Amino acid sequence: MKREVTYELARNIRLLGHLDMPGGGQVVVQDGYAFVGHMKPPMGTSIIDVRDPTRPTVAAHIEPPDTYSHTHKVRVCGDIMITNVEQDRRHFLRKGDKIPGLRESGLSDSDIAREIGVKPGDIADLDAARARGYDGGGFRVWDISAKTAPKLLSYVRTHGFGVHRFDMDANFAYISTEMEGYVGNVLVIYDLADPTNPREVSRWHMPGQHLAGGETPSWTGYGNRLHHAMRVDDELWAAVWHAGMRVLDANTLAVKGSYIWPKAIPEPTHTVMPLEHTINGRRYAVAIDEEHDHKPGRLHGFLWVLDVTDLAAIEPVAAWDLSERACPWIGEPGVRFGAHQFREKLDGTLVYATWFAGGLRVLDLKDPLLPVEVAHYIPEPGKGGPPQSNDVDVDDRGLIYLLDRVDGFDILEMTL
Fold first, then answer.
1. Is 3 exposed, middle or buried (0-12, 13-18, 19+ CB in 10 A)?
2. 231 neighbors 238 (Cβ within 8 angstroms)
3. What count of other Cβ atoms lies within 10 Å of the Cβ of residue 409?
């Protein structure tokens, strides 16, 4: 007899407000406004008035600088906002770099399409993008003292794809970007003392990334690269994709600690940060994978707890995963299920994590060796299909802002 599965879409969380809007890559909230970086052009960055959480309204919208870029990440500190500029469809378009060599080897376009994993009709699109090139990557700095009329202060161009996720504070921007002479994203730190002219002050890369400096990577492709680094006091906590994580001294950029997951862990490290407070005299950090193309038989992306009391001996001590049985849309075409991101502020023991089709999961790390889920919320399907919860932030009122990757923006409240 087949057992019927009942899906609980919400527990200990209620919906306060919703905005039907194109999906995004990041949301940050400050002083009654939510700042959203949208995933796809022509949408760019939206500033949303959330002072009344039951009626969120768009106060301003900024378009990307061109039709070939997306500006899906955003940070805010005081009256300064930074938005990334990155080539849209970058992973797909870079497949076109292989076409000339494959043609020289005698392969037909249909054979090339099969070789690089695209449809035959995509070859013309890839050829056009390669001929066009791309030089728009970088980041833009804005004055947001007037929320309804953000003012562009500067546009810093970097290289290649451009800028992905990043961090900032009142003094510096910690940018993850491709740079000329390197393979994959590296860390470039800019001084923001004059926001009309950000000044590069330092760089950090993993050994093997600096091709122009004579280094040779021990890996192939772009699997080892900086996703982004988060500033925590005098440290930078860097997720370096399939190379695991690094902890850097924020002043010297010397590596203070590192951990590389076993090859049996298929998904890359997206974000890593320590808890702000120790627990029972020990220091712990949280790391989360990003689920990509899941293959049956392989692990989904999930969340880790690490003992980082001794940075020279970092050790995973717990992990938390979500069963596929929690999601009614698992297996539908184009639907990611596993982990993606958590709120990038760990000021207590609660971790707010997005789980793509699994929605928002709230975990309590009161006992770091045994994470316990205390609440969750899975949005109903939107115009773009099943939920793909992508990013989350929490404001000073304790309200939760959940951003979908495809469409939808929800404001939530815990009911515990």
1. exposed
2. no
3. 25
Nearest residue to 344 (alpha-carbon basis) of 254, 258, 248, 228: 228
Number of helical H runs and strand E runs in the chain: 4, 30
Structural domains for the chain: 10-414 (2.130.10.10)
Is beta strand 235-241 parallel, antiparallel or unpaired with respect to 400-404?
unpaired
| CA–CA gap between residue 416 and residue 400 (Å, rounded) | 14
Q: In whole numbers, what is the pLDDT of the chain averaged over residues?
A: 95
Model confidence band, residue 416 (pLDDT cutoffs 50, 70, 90): confident
Q: Which amino acid would we find at residue 218?
A: S
Could you tell me the two tokens for 176?
Answer: 């993850």
Predicted confidence (pLDDT) per residue in 384-412, tens digit? 899 999 999 999 999 999 999 999 999 99
**Per-residue pLDDT tens over the stretch 365-385:** 999 999 999 999 999 998 889
Burial annotation 318-331 (CB, 10 A radius, 16+ → b, else e): bebebeeebbebbe
Give pTM, 2 decimals: 0.95
